Amino acid sequence: MSYARQMLETYPRPLGVDAGVLAGAIDALGDCAQACTADVAADLGEQNVAEMVRCIRLCLDCADICAATLGVLSRQADYDAMVTRPLLEACAAICQGCGDECERHARMHEHCRVCGEACRRCEQACRELLGAIE
Fold this sequence. Notes:
The model has no long low-confidence stretch (mean pLDDT 94). By secondary structure, the protein is mostly helical. The chain has one domain (34-133): Substrate Binding Domain Of Dnak, Chain:A, Domain 2. Helix 1 (3-10) runs antiparallel to helix 2, helix 2 packs antiparallel against helix 5 (110-133) and helix 3 packs antiparallel against helix 4 (81-105). 78% of the residues lie in helices and 0% in strands.
């Protein structure tokens, strides 16, 4: 069981959303932020960094948006769907774009393949949580 799920189970009030779906999103957001950060470092180590500029920029944006969304979702006190919904939508959008770009490089760079998978998983988890809170 993930730490996110364990923490959600200790929350003293009702969550208002399925704990498994919320924990899955929190876990995917953390994994995606880490994968994108690591992919940027790996991209910068490639011989032709100029080819990787778009990937680097998208990964930086994706890591930042995932981290912000992770922080908000981890604080369940005074949950506000007016804040959470746009964050999840932005996260799904950047994960889709970053995943697409990483997949373009995946055959040549294993780190991009791994990052692309993390982005796809996060995009799916954000969309699933969006469906659960609507």
